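2024-03-11 09:14:02 INFO worker-7 job=invfold-0412 stage=load source=structure_tokens
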């Protein structure tokens, strides 16, 4: 029922002043159901009161938290854009007089009253009479309800009584609105509230608000809403919002965020209630949440970011713990020779969505750790990620030695001593920060071994809390620890000598009553081998009850890799399982594809994305609609690449001729293949170059051209990786390839987002079995791209023969050169015989029907399996809830 419509019986009931009520409790309840949230209900109520009371205006004003000001919350008759913006002190105007005296005020000719004040922007100049009554809930003033008319009108005692009774019914709604953190806020305050919670980053409607406010500024400021709002004067913000009629969109986004944050009927409420009092503490050395918060380097961090976002969407009680790196990883530029150069820039903390974490004592949290070489301290920042909190430790505090103030300045920078000190801060410092915050985790999830020292600190805390020894505390803590290993590459597992371990863990070692040799044994595969270094992964595996790899194949590789740690056990019984990675769909899905899914899968599809049946509807999407959407995204990618290529060339001082060529580089008609990831040598970005002459013929075929876009960073110390990157960059200068190969510098989340949303094919050719998962290819799936990949990581369990393309058959070779040569030949054959013919085979409508059929199949068969919601559900049901002791049955046979 429309808010303005009521039955004839209702209208007749109030046509005279003899009736007892303007609005009944039942009607209020009905309008609440219709409106859903308090803001809509309040608007519905004032509309109905205006109609029932036969007034030209009905408005509700809410008392601000300072109880000294009123703000317009809902109105019929005044200008709608004043909602949330029109403010007055309680000692101003007639409305203020009602709040001040807490009693009705009725005036037939307002301009004759001593308290009359004209608010020009409200549009109230035409109204003569005024009747205001206080809104009181449970004896406390909540606001003022006002009616006004154009003609001078003397309100009778009955009319005043009727409005006062209506106000008594409305007051609880106003009270609810006021408790929702200043539910009715001015435009800029709502925008700031949105900007300070990273929920906006995966809500397309909210993100579009900041884009529309200042498109150029949004791009220049790396899509940072806090920086954007900081640079925009209030007058400009109001003018821009009025020009674009953004007020209602801002109100809608703000209201939706509050509804999201307050929702209590969630998957987590149903399945993870045991975690509510004692949440999961999720430790990770990096978190890739958004390009405007550059505290990540690559896949590990992006996975951690997706994990915490899906934990928010599902409402899994979880807090993230990481480090704040003011200089991030590094900014990448290529010189004229194509060699990678690194640059570190300081991030302005005031331009980030962070605030000081406040402890249970009401003061900012600072943690302290004693080492053999002195005390190490860190302050703690809080980042809001939807419903979840991420806490970041920052060593730049007074009292630290100068070198320690720089300790957390860079991600993965420095020598082994810096690395172990960072990991000490992450693990031990992170757990101490949670204690200072009053958070008592029930589960510790270690995302890779960097944070394994947290388990030693947890054991120490348990020993003190329960008055028990180390041996008794270990099993009690271990059952609460989940460890995820991410790489089968030896360099990915940190190892430290005994001197570094003793310098940093010595005081904690003594506190738990261990000898130096006993502690070292916890980090060695062979505890008695004094020549073996201390390995963080070994420590994590020894002290965790549940350990997992990140794909089925990676699970097999990990069990084989760590057999020495579990001597006497067959490889199949090594206690390392797997939970295959997934990606946070709203963060990576193009808005155009999101809207397509809304139309065909139902508007709640993203809340049920882990259900296979949801994706069956993709087969009903018109081929032309899906293809046209994909081509639009591809055009956006090409424009993005051209713009970045020109900017890069200008920075290098390239000639005008080169700039003009790059402005036109790439064709929207050509098959476009993307490759973006770390330039580690095992990922073999140069595998496509194994037959350079055949590649040249392929990309320059006038009938069936192929083009490539590359991006990625090599570690600053990885000279071979930089060499591979230079090989790719050199193709941009080679006349045979320069119009068909583009390398986009400074790979980050923004670059990755454009790539995965716009490419036709995603190329992934690591040296099997060294790819743990490879989530970049998962991001392509729901955007309509097809994977062309070695059968490694996630693709080994995903490929069904027709939902993408495979390089080789999954076989390896003991000779690396033979292995690479064979894979290179298989890559070229698959391109020549399968990918290119299928892409260019068109019907009379110009549509590649076979290609589109494969697009639909990849969406239908893979979309539900390889998303982060499914991944986090698996962790919750198979790891978190059991670790917290929340399972209702477990009938495993005793060993």
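2024-03-11 09:14:09 INFO worker-7 stage=emit residues=895
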């Amino acid at each position: 029922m429309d808010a303005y419509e009521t039955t004839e019986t209702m209208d007749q009931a109030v046509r005279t002043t003899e009736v007892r009520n303007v609005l009944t409790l039942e009607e209020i309840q009905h309008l609440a159901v219709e409106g859903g949230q308090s803001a809509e209900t309040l608007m519905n109520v004032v509309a109905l009161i205006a109609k029932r009371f036969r007034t030209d205006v009905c408005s509700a004003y809410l008392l601000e938290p300072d109880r000294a000001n009123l703000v317009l919350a809902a109105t019929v008759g005044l200008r709608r854009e004043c909602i949330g913006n029109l403010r007055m002190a309680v000692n101003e105007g007639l409305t203020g007089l009602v709040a001040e005296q807490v009693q009705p005020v009725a005036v037939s000719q307002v301009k004759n009253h001593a308290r009359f004040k004209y608010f020009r922007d409200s549009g109230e100049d035409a109204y003569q009479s005024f009747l205001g009554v206080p809104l009181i809930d449970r004896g406390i003033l909540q606001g003022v309800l006002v009616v006004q008319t154009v003609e001078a009108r003397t309100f009778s005692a009955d009319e005043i009584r009727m409005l006062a009774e209506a106000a008594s019914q409305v007051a609880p709604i106003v009270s609810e609105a006021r408790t929702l953190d200043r539910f009715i806020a001015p435009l800029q305050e709502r925008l700031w509230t949105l900007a300070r919670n990273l929920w906006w980053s995966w809500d397309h409607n909210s993100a579009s608000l900041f884009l529309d406010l200042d498109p150029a500024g949004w791009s220049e400021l790396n899509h940072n809403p806090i920086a954007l709002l900081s640079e925009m004067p209030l007058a400009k913000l109001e003018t821009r919002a009025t020009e674009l009629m953004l007020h209602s969109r801002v109100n809608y986004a703000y209201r939706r965020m509050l509804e999201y944050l307050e929702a209590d009927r969630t998957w987590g409420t149903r399945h993870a209630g045991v975690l509510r009092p004692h949440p999961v503490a999720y430790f990770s050395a990096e978190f890739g949440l958004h390009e405007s918060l550059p505290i990540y380097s690559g896949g590990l961090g992006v996975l951690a970011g997706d994990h915490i976002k899906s934990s928010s969407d599902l409402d899994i009680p979880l807090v993230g713990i990481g480090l704040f790196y003011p200089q991030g990883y590094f900014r990448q530029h290529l010189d004229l020779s194509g060699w990678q150069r690194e640059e570190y820039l300081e991030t302005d903390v005031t331009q980030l969505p962070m605030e000081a974490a406040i402890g249970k004592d009401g003061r900012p949290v600072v943690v302290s750790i004693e080492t053999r070489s002195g005390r190490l301290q860190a302050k703690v920042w809080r980042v809001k990620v939807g419903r979840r909190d991420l806490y970041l430790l920052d060593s730049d505090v007074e009292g630290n030695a100068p070198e320690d103030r720089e300790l957390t300045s860079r991600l993965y920078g420095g020598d082994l001593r810096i690395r172990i000190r960072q990991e000490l801060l992450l693990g031990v410092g992170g757990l101490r920060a949670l204690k200072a915050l009053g958070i008592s985790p029930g589960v510790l999830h270690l995302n890779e071994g960097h944070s394994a020292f947290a388990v030693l600190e947890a054991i120490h805390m348990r020993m003190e809390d329960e008055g028990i020894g180390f041996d008794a505390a270990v099993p009690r803590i271990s059952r609460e620890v989940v460890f995820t290993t991410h790489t089968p590459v030896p360099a990915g597992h940190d190892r430290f000598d005994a001197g570094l371990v003793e310098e940093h863990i010595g005081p904690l070692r003594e506190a738990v009553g261990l000898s130096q040799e006993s502690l070292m044994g916890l980090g060695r595969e062979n505890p008695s081998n004094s020549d073996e270094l201390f390995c963080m992964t070994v420590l994590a595996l020894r002290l965790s009850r549940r350990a997992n790899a990140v794909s089925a194949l990676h699970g097999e590789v990990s069990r084989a890799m760590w057999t020495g740690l579990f001597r006497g056990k067959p490889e199949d019984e090594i206690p390392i399982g797997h939970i295959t990675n997934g990606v946070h769909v709203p963060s990576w899905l193009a808005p155009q594809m999101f809207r397509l899914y809304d139309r065909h899968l139902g508007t709640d599809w993203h809340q049920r994305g882990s259900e296979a049946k949801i994706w069956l509807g993709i087969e009903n999407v018109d081929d032309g609609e899906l293809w046209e959407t994909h081509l639009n995204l591809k055009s956006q990618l090409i424009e993005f690449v051209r713009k970045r290529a020109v900017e890069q060339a200008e920075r290098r001082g390239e000639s005008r001729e080169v700039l003009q060529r790059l402005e036109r580089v790439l064709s929207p008609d050509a098959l476009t293949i993307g490759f973006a990831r770390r330039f580690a040598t095992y990922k073999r970005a140069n595998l496509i170059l194994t037959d350079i002459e055949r590649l040249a013929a392929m990309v320059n075929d006038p009938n069936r051209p192929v083009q490539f876009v590359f991006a990625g960073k090599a570690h600053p110390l990885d000279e071979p990786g930089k060499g591979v990157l230079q090989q790719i960059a050199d193709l941009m200068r080679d006349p045979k390839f320069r119009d068909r190969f583009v390398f986009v510098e400074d790979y980050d989340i923004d670059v990755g987002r454009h790539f995965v949303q716009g490419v036709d094919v995603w190329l992934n050719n690591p040296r099997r079995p060294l790819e743990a998962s490879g989530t970049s290819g998962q991001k392509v799936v729901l955007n309509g791209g097809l994977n062309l990949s070695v059968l490694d990581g996630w693709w080994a369990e995903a490929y069904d023969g027709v939902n993408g393309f495979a390089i080789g058959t999954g076989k390896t070779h003991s000779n690396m050169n033979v292995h690479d040569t064979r894979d290179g030949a298989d890559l070229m054959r698959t391109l020549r015989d399968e990918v290119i013919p299928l892409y260019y085979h068109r019907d009379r409508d110009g549509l590649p029907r076979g290609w589109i059929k494969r697009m639909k199949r990849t969406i239908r068969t893979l979309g539900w399996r390889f998303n982060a919601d499914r991944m986090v559900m698996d962790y919750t049901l198979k790891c978190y809830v059991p670790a917290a002791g929340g399972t209702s049955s477990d009938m495993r046979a005793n060993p």
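2024-03-11 09:14:09 INFO worker-7 stage=report msg="The chain has 33 helices and 26 strands."
2024-03-11 09:14:10 INFO worker-7 job finished
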